[in-house]
Amino acid sequence: MSTLPSSMQCLLKEREEEGYDLVQRPVPEPGPGDVIIKIEKVGICGSDINLWKWNDVAKKIASLPFIPGHEATGVVVKVGSEVTTIKLRQKVAVENHFYCGECVLCLSDRGDICQRMDQYGLGRGTKHGGCCQYSLVPARYCYVLTRSLTPSQAVLLEPMGVAHNAVSQIEVAGVGVLVLGAGPVGLFAIAVSKALGASPIYAVDIVPEKLEIAKKMGATHVIDATKEDVGEAVMRLTDGNGVERIVEASGSAVLLNHSFKWLRKGGQMVLIGIPKGPLHVDDVLQDLIFKSLTLKTVHGRRIFSTWRACEALLASGKVDVTPLISHDMPMSRYADAFSALLSCKACKILLDPHQ
């Protein structure tokens, strides 16, 4: 590899206020167990709105200062002295959940829900993130790509992994799936459900443009919650029986609270979204207990089995990421990118830190 530059362009969050600064900082030097990645693409998503605004949610999950960007991919350009599992020029994507490797959950192969988890791109245990030209990442959090993926595919392994982890928990093959929310993770849940054999697939959202994308990702029926009663639509489409599986990816507490009524007896639900209000079930006996339901939640990806499964689906063409990429922009236009994100009409936004 050629000699790295001494400085780089990056986004930085240093102050408790809205926005980021585009600054020049020294290119980091790897420690013994680290690698330096030349970032090719970094993704921003709905969760980044909290960090941009620096609202109450951000204050709970992030620590200043930090370089944002928890979805990142690139090429390894420098390797620490003790790194043996990763080589120069290998393409990698970053697992943003920095598990400790020592707690009872990590020792049970559940690093995805580590008790002492730090997070890349949020300033938790590391100030580094993907919104920079060269990023320092401990080697053990890098997923080495084994198949031929484009940078745009590789950077989406992280959000796709959340959806795959969720869908794989609820046995979707041969049954109907209702996906609440057609943001990027919800859209991936639709595509993964289709790839794993679900049918039919229903999608709910309030943005018509996102429902059009949902169709392209594999939804057989779409429901615009601004135009019709979701419950009535679900019951009509299922002949009054309710749906077998629900993937909640909207983060709407109101929608989630009602959704238990739409599940068929023996149904299964998995929660991905982050509700902004309290949860309750109106009729606990009829909508929960007597239905003998299964309720699961996920936090991230299974490390690294989910990554391998998602990489295989992308490489095989069973999941196409093209419909959900609404913007692919230079990082220098980050303000425009976040303006599009805040409009609620953007879907998946990718940035190139070298432009």
UniProtKB/TrEMBL annotation:
Can you tell which superkingdom this protein's organism belongs to?
A: Eukaryota
Q: What keywords are annotated for this sequence in UniProt?
A: Metal-binding, Oxidoreductase, Zinc
Domain Enoyl reductase (ER) spans what residues? 15-351
Looking up Gene3D superfamilies in the UniProt record yields: Medium-chain alcohol dehydrogenases, catalytic domain, NAD(P)-binding Rossmann-like Domain
Recorded hits in InterPro entries, A to Z, give:
ADH-like_C, ADH-like_N, ADH_Zn_CS, ER, GroES-like_sf, NAD(P)-bd_dom_sf, Zn_alcohol_dh
Membrane-spanning regions, if any?
none
MF terms in GO: oxidoreductase activity; zinc ion binding
Q: Which cofactor does it need?
A: Zn(2+)
Which family does the entry's similarity section mention? Belongs to the zinc-containing alcohol dehydrogenase family.
For this entry, the protein name equals: L-threonine 3-dehydrogenase-like
Q: Which organism is it from?
A: Hirondellea gigas
